[in-house]
Each structure stands twice: as structure tokens, then as C-alpha cells.
Amino acid sequence: MKNVELSIVLPAWNEAANLEILLPKLNRHLLDAQIAYEVIVVDGGSTDNSSRIADQNGAIFVPQTERGYGGALITGFQLAKGAYVATLDADGSHPPEKLLEMWDQRLTADVFIGSRYIKGGGSDAEWSRKVLSWILNGVYRVAIGLPFRDVSSGFRLYSRHCLALNVVARDFEFLEELLAQQYYLKCRIREIPFHYTPRAFGVSHARLFVFGKLYLKSIARIRRERSNFQWESGDRFQTQQAGKV
Hints:
Layout: E1 6-12, H1 16-32, E2 37-43, H2 50-56, E3 60-63, H3 68-79, E4 84-87, H4 96-104, E5 111-115, E6 122-123, H5 127-144, E7 156-159, H6 174-184, E8 189-193, E9 195-196, H7 212-225, E10 239-241
Parallel strand pairs: 1-2, 1-4, 2-3, 5-8, 6-9, 8-10
Antiparallel strand pairs: 4-7, 5-7
Helix pairs in contact: 1-2, 5-7
């Protein structure tokens, strides 16, 4: 078996129609780039033919072992064999060509965030979701002191050593808690601009209002626990944007 350089984790729940478009596109880009990779579709209990679509496109299809979006990512991280692990949404909103841009720059940082909110990025989401996303990101920046424009983006590339962490959250706030721990532990983090395009098929499973209480608990938990990471305000790890190494 070939050594896997890059593992791609796709949390999915009834995303067969989108996977049928995304998986061939991922395969094409990664094969052209000659990257030794694996794609892991972590299923949250789909009732459509997601399993068949994954199998037809050479992806590993596994049920998640813990609840929630964060639980799906944890399942994928545990199974991933690559030295680098990428996370994309299965709905096709994260462009594979931007993943290759992160990959090409992988030696310049430990964590890459696909960012909608730095120069060159953007979003075609409906205005109400944009406003809620801006508020969420702003609250985390102010309350936790994270100096990133898009802390809620699930489009990321990680060096494996920055995933050996203990994150309590299991829903969508998992992303912010993971990033906070990486920040406090001095992983090098960069934001790469990308343009968000809403899903082609189906309905989003994210409900920002529903998860508002969980986000507030997450912020309180991070503020309580950050001293455990021996964080000092004058000695944070590097934050960089694309082109600024």
C-alpha cells in the first residue's frame, strides 16, 4: 500500500447528490497534482445512497463514532493516515483547487484556514447567514483574542502534530475550540482566501441560532482553560496570511 501524504475528511449526512459531484472533482485535482491521498467520508446516519457514491469514487465510507459535526471530524482524524489532514464540507462549497493552494504552501505553516473574510475571499451565502457568521466570528475574536477573520470555517488543512489535542466540543463549535488550542500551543496558522459557494443540493444542517447557546458555553470553556496551555499574551504563535510568511 502506498504511503498516504494527505487525508481528506468529509463529514456527510444525506449528501449523495453533492458527493457525486465533489468526489470526482477531488480525485481529478489530486491525481493531477500527483499527491498520495485518501478520502474519508464520515457518515452521520445517511438514508440516501451516499455509501454507494463514496465506494464508486474510491473513498472510504465510515459511520461516525461520536455525535455531532465535531464528532464526525474526530472520527475522521482517528482514521486518517496522512501526515496532513484536510477537512472540507461534503456539500461542495469548498473548492478543491484551493486545497491544492494550501498543499503547495504546507511547509510555511501548521494550519491553514480557508477564509471568506480576508482580502480575496468572499461568500455567496444569503445575507442573514452572512450577518450571523460575521457576528459569530467577531465575538470569538473579541472574547477569546483569536486574531483570525474566519474562525468558523470548516475548510482547513492541518499538520498531524497539531491535531493531538483534547477538544470538549462535539458540535459546530468544535472548530473554534480546536483553533483556540492550536493558537495557544503556538502552531503556525495562516488564512488563505477562498470564495464560498452555497451547496448545490439539499439543505444546510447548520443552525446558528440553535447552536448559539453551545457557542457561548464554548467561549466560556476556552477562557477558563487557556491558562492550561501556558499562554502568554506577548508570546503567541505566528499568524500569517497568504503571501506573508
